[in-house]
Amino acid sequence: MSILVVGSVAFDNVLTPSGKKDNLLGGAATYFALAASYFTEVRVVGVVGEDFTTEHENVLKQRGIDTRGIEHAQGKTFRWGGQYLDNLNEAKTDFTDLNVFENFQPRIPAEYKNTEFLFLANIHPTLQATVRRELAGVKLTGGDTMNYWIRGTNSELRETLRLMDILTINDTEAKMLANESNLPRAAHKVLAMGPKALVIKHGEYGATIFFREGAFGVGRHPFRAPALPIEEVKDPTGAGDSFAGGFMGYIASQKDVNREIIKRALFYGGVMGSFAVEQFGTERLQTLSREEIDARFQVFRELTHLE
Amino acid sequence: MSILVVGSVAFDNVLTPSGKKDNLLGGAATYFALAASYFTEVRVVGVVGEDFTTEHENVLKQRGIDTRGIEHAQGKTFRWGGQYLDNLNEAKTDFTDLNVFENFQPRIPAEYKNTEFLFLANIHPTLQATVRRELAGVKLTGGDTMNYWIRGTNSELRETLRLMDILTINDTEAKMLANESNLPRAAHKVLAMGPKALVIKHGEYGATIFFREGAFGVGRHPFRAPALPIEEVKDPTGAGDSFAGGFMGYIASQKDVNREIIKRALFYGGVMGSFAVEQFGTERLQTLSREEIDARFQVFRELTHLE
Quick check: B243 and B207 in contact, CB under 8 A? Predict the structure, then answer.
């Protein structure tokens, strides 16, 4: 089934221990869409500037991604620069030029109105809520947010959380959102704010999903998927968005949404995140095959499964 | 089969968000021995002072632990005080009074010479090496160390690492020992120093074991066991030593030592660590049953296993 992602399309300058690359095609929606495209039909709503060429758009189109929702505005595309020299797990931002993204007003093309799965990438929570309300018929909504919105637009975010089925954030964000330093307690507080399930991404340690009692199945036992210990992380940019793309993309490709599907999806999220960091930018996500993905899924399984 | 642990027996004063407790029976050898006692026959070599009473010794004896190797010296037992108010994952030390532990010279009783499994808890690497050489017939040697020895007695530690089969340390220690910030690369550097396998403990995220090519089986694929997301961590003291006790104790209880056994052992390590933190000091480890342990083993399995 189809999944729509709403979020940033960007150009990134990154500096990592493996080197420096400028003007890489990036942005949350880009990473998400590429990762999800190996599982299901993907649509994108975002905004780009005049520096976004046909060649850039073809990176998405070649993966069968529907780009009709990408608005071309006057001005420059969102640009971000960051480095990971001290810590591969956390970017140090050098600059953020929002450019055309500053006044982004998501417009959902008529052709997208039948979208069944929705992912609200990290944008202003009020914009997330507007999109969600416009697509009243979606079967399942996932979303992301960040410290900036948790601090600056907390009441708007709280409103939006009531419209999300699955929230995907990292440890720091979960603790900040819940104002609670114990992770499972933080998770239950966040679930009480609205989402049926909460995915907490632990970076190199994998991810844990917490469920509201009875959501998608029985009980509220969490589930944890590993991450692959990777010897050369060339560029961590987009790992979390690629995780979300694999996770949501796999869910959208299945007939049902139940706990067992969601658990497998969590593994697929880890798989797509692990591919993303192997090359700079979206390079590795452009040329994968489903066979490579399923082979790595088996590696993840063996990494953590007892006989 | 029997396992011998050599290490500290101590009294701890701890302050955690759950409260303050003084004069708790603690020390690496104590936590290790109690955790391992649910799996196999355990022997302890350590030193205590005159403040260590029959009542304290009975905590170990009631679990069937052989305490004949605990030397009673004139003076006071090792005392440590620490707090976890800011961060449950890392103790802030208030004081360390080594007392009789300062001049600890491990003496192996004649009755212990047939010991098959050995665990060298966190003591001076030269003492670790001496014990290992004295027990030339052991089948498998595990060990621990810490930042203090990595920095202060690096060449002695390097010598000792060549005598260990399995080293169990945490992320920070592994990175410091290897002088390498990437975890799997650090792991391979540490394995090149001698151990056949390296367990890296990730605290609330579980643990990963890395193998030298061909050690205990085929290949050098790592394996990762989860930790349980715990809502109330009353006292994190001894979690790592309890992990090691469960891990090594399970291995010592089995006829063979192979990858599949070691993988299960890694899960049992996590299980014993998860019990340890539920109460202050060693309280929870004193009154467990093997049934409770195996039930939690199943919870760990379900936490991370796909159908």
Answer: yes
Question: And the tokens for B173?
Answer: 């220690």
In sequence order, which residues have a C-beta less than 8 Å from that of residue B38 and are 6 or more positions away? Answer: B63, B246, B249, B272, B288, B290, B293
Using one digit for the tens of pLDDT, what is the confidence trace for B240-268? 999 999 999 999 999 999 999 999 999 99
B174 within 8 A of B144, measured Cβ to Cβ: no
For the cut 90, the answer to whether the pLDDT of residue B238 exceeds it is: yes
Tokens coding A143: 């979303």
Cα gap B13→B25, rounded to integer Å: 9
Question: Do A126 and A153 form a contact (C-beta atoms < 8 A)?
Answer: yes
User: A194, A193, A192, A188: which is closest to A208 by C-alpha?
Assistant: A188
In Å, what is the CA distance from B221 to each residue of A148, A300, B210? Answer: 39, 11, 7
Mutation pick from A205, A233, A302 vs chain B, by most beta carbons of B within 10 Å, is: A205
Residues of chain A with pLDDT under 70: none
Cβ-count burial of A33 within 10 angstroms (0-12 exposed, 13-18 middle, 19+ buried)?
buried
Residue A46, amino acid = G
Which candidate, B260, B39, B4, places its Cα nearest to that of B139? B4
Amino acid B87: pLDDT: 82
Give the separation between CA A23 and CA A91, rounded to whole angstroms.
17
Q: Which residues pair with A46 in a beta bridge?
A: A70
Assess contact for B37 and B246: CB atoms under 8 A.
no
Encode pLDDT of B274-293 as tens digits: 999 999 999 999 999 999 99
DSSP code, position A110: G
Asked whether the beta carbons of residue B226 and residue A229 sit closer than 8 angstroms, the reply is no
* Whether A304 and B224 lie within 8 Å, measured CB to CB: yes
B302 vs A183, A221, A301: nearest CB: A221
Measure the CA–CA gap between B2 and B45, rounded to whole angstroms. Answer: 13
Quickly tell me which residue has 């290992």 as its tokens: B132
Write b or e for each residue in B161-185: b if 16 or more Cβ atoms lie within 10 A of its Cβ, otherwise e.
bebbbbbbbbbebbbbbbebebbbb
**A274 in reach of chain B (CB within 8 A):** no
DSSP string, A86-145: S-TTSPEEEEEE-GGGGG------GGGTT--EEEE-SS-HHHHHHHHHH-TT-SEEEE--
Coil, strand or helix at A9: coil
Checking DSSP bridges between strand B166-170 and strand B197-201, what pairing results, if any?
parallel
Q: Which chain B residues are within 8 Å of A225, Cβ to Cβ?
A: 304
Strand, coil or helix: B154: helix
Chain A contact for B264 (CB, 8 A cutoff): yes
| pLDDT tens profile B138-182 | 999 999 999 999 999 999 999 999 999 999 999 999 999 999 989
Question: How confident is the model at residue A232, as a pLDDT?
Answer: 87
Q: Please report the number of interchain residue pairs, chain A to chain B, with beta-carbon separation below 8 angstroms.
A: 85
Over the stretch A119-148, which tens digit does the pLDDT of each residue have?
999 999 999 999 999 999 999 999 999 999
User: E-strand spans in A202-275?
Assistant: 207-211, 223-225
The predicted complex's ipTM stands at 0.90
Taking contacts as CB-CB distances below 8 angstroms, the residues of chain B near A231 are: 182, 184-185, 188
